Amino acid sequence: MMGQPPTVLHIEDNPDHAHLVDRSLKKHQRDCIVYLVEDGETALDYLLRRDVYQDPRKSPRPCLILLDLRLPRIDGLEVLRTIKTAEDLLSIPVVILTSSEAEKDVAEAYRYHANSYLVKPVGFAEFSKLMDDLALYWLGWNRSTLSGERTF
Q: Which CATH code for domain 7-143?
C-alpha cells in the first residue's frame, strides 16, 4: 500500500552481517522495517504464517527478502524454492546474499527464480558499499510488483 514503510525479511544467521545490513537499509530508508530470522525453518514459519507467526501483524508481507544460502535447519535454496512455488509469495523479490561463489549455488538460485545473487565481500568497506548499493536499488529505485503499487 502507498505510504506504508517498506518491510524487509532478512534471513541470516550471522549477527554481524545482520547488523550491517539493517544499518544500511535504514540509512537509505529510515522508516524501513527489517524482520530478522536466523534459520530457514523460522523463515518458512514466518512466510507461511505458521506457529507464532499466524497473526499477519507478526508476519507482514515483505516487499523484499534477503536470503543467505548457508542456514541452519533448512538451507536457503530450499527456502527459495518454497517461496517461488507458493502462489502468495512468488512475486516477492528474493535477493540471495551469501558468501558462496560456487557456480552450482548460483545456477540453483537462478533455477529457483532468485531475483539477484550477491556474494558478500570479505572486507568491511566492500561489504558496506554493497549494502549501500543494494538498499539504494531495492528500496529506492526498484518498483514493487506487490499489488502493482510502489510500497514505499
A: 3.40.50.2300
CA distance 137 to 3: 19
Question: Residue 64 in contact with residue 139, Cβ under 8 Å?
Answer: yes
**Strand ranges, E, within the chain:** 7-11, 33-37, 64-67, 94-98, 116-119
Res 2: pLDDT: 53
Three cell numbers written together for 24: 544500511
Of 60, 59, 35, 28, which Cα lies nearest the Cα of 139?
28
Q: How do strand 64-67 and strand 7-11 relate by DSSP bridges?
A: parallel
- Cell 540509512 sits on residue: 27
Angle subtended at Cα 141 by Cα 106 and Cα 139, rounded to the nearest 5 degrees: 75
Q: Which residues of the chain have a pLDDT value below 70?
A: 1-3, 143-152
146-149 long-range contacts, Cβ below 8 Å, gap at least 24?
146/61, 146/63, 146/91, 146/92, 147/1, 149/1, 149/2
